[in-house]
Amino acid sequence: MTRIKRGYIARRRRTKMRFFVSGFRGAHSKVTQTVIQQRIRALFSAHRDRGRKKRDFRRLWITRINAAIRAESVYYRYSTLIHNLYRKQLLLNRKILAQIAILNRNCLYMISKAIY
């Protein structure tokens, strides 16, 4: 029997995977089996951390709002502020409140006095 050379399809698939992991160090970007594993791991982490990022930012905004409220002479907590916002039907989300707390604290105090 004559010798048959393999085609280019498998090589093209592996090259495509190597482009994905080109920034990884050592065998993680060289050895095909490790490249496959690291690619799966990277995609899994990216998928998981998209949700995690949303959680982390929400925690940061809550912390900033709470710190701004307690810093000056507003004598109640974050939870009371949010409860009063809902009670007065003011639709301000936490991201906007955190930006107000950082950039314009007087505005935050005016809001808190108005809803209290």
TrEMBL record:
<dbReference type="InterPro" id="IPR005813">
    <property type="entry name" value="Ribosomal_bL20"/>
</dbReference>
<keyword id="KW-0694">RNA-binding</keyword>
<dbReference type="GO" id="GO:0003735">
    <property type="term" value="F:structural constituent of ribosome"/>
</dbReference>
<keyword id="KW-0150">Chloroplast</keyword>
<keyword id="KW-0934">Plastid</keyword>
<dbReference type="GO" id="GO:0009507">
    <property type="term" value="C:chloroplast"/>
</dbReference>
<keyword id="KW-0687">Ribonucleoprotein</keyword>
<dbReference type="GO" id="GO:0005840">
    <property type="term" value="C:ribosome"/>
</dbReference>
<protein>
    <recommendedName>
        <fullName>Large ribosomal subunit protein bL20c</fullName>
    </recommendedName>
</protein>
<dbReference type="Pfam" id="PF00453">
    <property type="entry name" value="Ribosomal_L20"/>
</dbReference>
<dbReference type="GO" id="GO:1990904">
    <property type="term" value="C:ribonucleoprotein complex"/>
</dbReference>
<keyword id="KW-0699">rRNA-binding</keyword>
<dbReference type="GO" id="GO:0000027">
    <property type="term" value="P:ribosomal large subunit assembly"/>
</dbReference>
<dbReference type="InterPro" id="IPR035566">
    <property type="entry name" value="Ribosomal_protein_bL20_C"/>
</dbReference>
<keyword id="KW-0689">Ribosomal protein</keyword>
<dbReference type="GO" id="GO:0019843">
    <property type="term" value="F:rRNA binding"/>
</dbReference>
<dbReference type="InterPro" id="IPR049946">
    <property type="entry name" value="RIBOSOMAL_L20_CS"/>
</dbReference>
<comment type="similarity">
    <text>Belongs to the bacterial ribosomal protein bL20 family.</text>
</comment>
<comment type="function">
    <text>Binds directly to 23S ribosomal RNA and is necessary for the in vitro assembly process of the 50S ribosomal subunit. It is not involved in the protein synthesizing functions of that subunit.</text>
</comment>
<dbReference type="GO" id="GO:0006412">
    <property type="term" value="P:translation"/>
</dbReference>
